[in-house]
Amino acid sequence: MGASQLLGLDLVLSVLTAAAWSAAAWFVLETSRRPTAAPVSGTRLALPSLVAALVLTASKVAAVASLAAAGWLFASERAVVGLPLLVLPALAGGIAGFRCLAQRGIPDVQAGTYLRLPAPVLVLWAAVGASASLLVPVVLGFDPHPAAIAAFLALAGCGALMCWILFGPAGARRRSRAATAVGVLMLGTVLGAAGLGWLGSRSAEGVMIAAVGHHGGPIAGGGASGSTAADPGLRPVTELTGDLPQDAPVRHYELTARQQTFTSAGGKTVEAWTFGSLPGPALEAELGDIIEVVLANRDVAAGVTLHWHGYDVPNAMDGVAGGTQDTLRPGQAMTYRFEARQTGTYWYHTHQMSAEGVRKGLYGTLVVRDPGVSRAATDLVVAGHSLASLTLLGSSDGVQVHEARAGTDARLRLVNTDSLPQRYQLLGTGYSVAAVDGAELPAGVGVPAAEASGTILRLPAGGRMDLTFTVPDHPVTLRTEGSSSAAVVLVPDADGATPPAAYGEAPTPATADFRSGTELDLLTASGQASGRQEVPAGGTGWNRTAIMVLDRQLRFVDGVPRYAYTVNGAAFPQIEPLVVQEGDTVKLTVVNRTSEPHPMHPHGHHVQVLARNGQPPGMPLVLDTFDVLPGEVWEVLLTANNPGIWVDHCHNLDHAAEGMMMHLQYRGYSSPFTHGGPAGNRAE
Description:
This protein is α+β, with helices and mostly antiparallel strands. The chain has nine helices and 35 strands.
């Protein structure tokens, strides 16, 4: 059983154990209240409920032990805090419960009272402990602060004390006063903890990102509520514009964000935010060019920026609202300039309220080519996107036909602009996965024609994949799982073996089967990677390590209580940043304890995959978006070679908006921009 299944089993067992102990406490309490000779139907259920509670407790212990064997990061707080809360009261309650059932209570001379109440109280304590153990992963999470543990244990203790007060041997008046006092204490603890959580979630509102000095720690007077003026030695991120060659060709583009009514090829109409089209204008450049993009906001009230996904631009050009710039409000404009130093397939999108902005259409593609490498005769960029009821491949929700000469080279550049994974099939030809996230794989990962119909290409949110093949003398079809109507079809042109007239105006695209196919796993494929080898090819030599545990807990996000997406038990902006020195090489261990995939995207950097679940990849693999599936543990290597203050977040942008975003922060740099504030900056 894998870690994901064990986490699910642990949750089920936790719920059942808490329910079983609660039922056992009720039945034992009812039994103890009756004279020995009095027949009570409920007492027949006391023994089986007690046995069931103990069996479930043992099963819960076994599940946590199995989780710990799968990886301590899956089980840490469950084992250290949750099990003692469960096991110790369960042992006491089990023994006392069996004794109570054996003796059936001794009635007191006064009607309605009885002497043997400690036994049911101990069983009630077991129910409180089981319930508290259930809440440990949801409330505390990974690596909780000692104060949080103390407050949680205090609440559990108050719950146990309340059981003693309500069901122990005491007078009614005394019992009422004590119960009121404990209730007030519990309420005060809950409100105090909630208040601190609320204040923490609002701590970034209208203030600057914490500055980190050259020698470590936050700068006095800076940080979450201060000013970067406290240390004039800090360099603002606005100065990190890169060294641009003076004589390089300039690729100039102008983008205007606007509200637009979009009508698809299939006749569907949706309200969108666009850069003039869906997707936005295709940007192209060659290695060494200066890319210059003027962004203007016509009427998008939420604001807009430009982030270059996967492109390691200088920090000032990263386009993160509240991090590297203020959002552009209607009527405002900004120019982005950077050198094209990476070849490959990339994309751009807004990073102001990006969960909404990207979904509504503020995205486009960027392709940078090496002028020394010959271009494929057919080179198509296909950006997959879901908008309301539409599923688009490129700009269409219907069949797109492209002519291609048989026998020539073709390249399809797939881009996932959604927040969820996309699945594709390329039918009618064998092909090779030539590049992933812009990094070429010279040896490629081949898929023979005979296996193409059974091979599914899974593209994580934000990810890209380039497919190359030789155009055959018959149609080739690209399908996506998200639509039965959208397809890209390549047909041989008149110089090929079959004229397009043979297929009619709109050839019937091949039908894909996404239910029985097998996903291509690049981590188990063999090949050779090249291009941006930013990290040691051997996967050794790191001087730093860090852990990111991806989970869900009850947290405040921007002052609103949510079942948030968290990193190391905290939600943005309370997640501790990963602080690095320029030149550091950091081994990141990323653990997914949720039931959903998390495509993690560190801005301004790529990572080399060292291992997934302890197994190294079959080839060196460099990614800018790595998809951590439920129960998986990824180890990746990140080289700190692009200074500034960056964000690292889940590229399911809804997850990022609900807390799963943190900072990758270089020592010695500061940002003058604020989260929220007068500019209304909201990166996600």
